[in-house]
Amino acid sequence: MQEQRPDYIVVEGPIGVGKTSLAQRLAESFGCDLLLEGADDNPFLERFYRNPREGALPTQLFFLLQRAQQMQALRQADMFQPVRVADFLIEKDRLFAQLTLDEQEYRLYDQVYSHLTLDAPSPDLVIYLQAPVEVLLKRIHKRARPHERSIDAAYLERLSEGYMRFFYDYEAAPLLIVNAEHIDLVNSDEDYQALLEQVHRVRRGRHYFNPMPVSL
């Protein structure tokens, strides 16, 4: 299993699905570098959640520039590092931009995007976590981050649909689609080990992991 692990793993999914927590646990298991999107470093994020129309453009431009720097650093890092784990795909930045920006703002965003060097390495595996909106809301409320208090079900519904459209035709890397509704990948060793087995098995194509709740 040590020899079969992917060299570059990306965990993706909508807000509240648990992608950062899973990425952290995978990095601990593999003893490797962890690359996080750094949402808490974005000074415009709280403004966006308070007033999306006012804060959308600076929020997206900050994330875009931040991710461009992260990809550059990743390319320049020690290429002999055996494994890296990230909690974002650079391509998903457009997903959020299309969701939150108006036509003129998106045109400006697209101009900035086209002038950046986004030479991101291709993942060896993308793990796409899914969960119903009510589950996402419950997890968001549980972690109680101040800037996320105004996130509502309508926004999460649009975001989840955007992710489903994005991954429907995704073929840039092997893809493991995980139904995370009934599993706890942070606190349950059993759930995590079951997922880890799937990670070691995926080599190419599209795969599904749909664990069902245990009947009492």
TrEMBL record:
Pfam families: dNK (PF01712). GO terms for cellular component: cytoplasm. Keywords: ATP-binding, Nucleotide-binding. The active site is at residue 87. ATP binds at residues 13-21, 139-143. The keyword Ribosomal protein does not apply. This is DNA polymerase III subunit epsilon. It comes from Thiohalobacter thiocyanaticus.
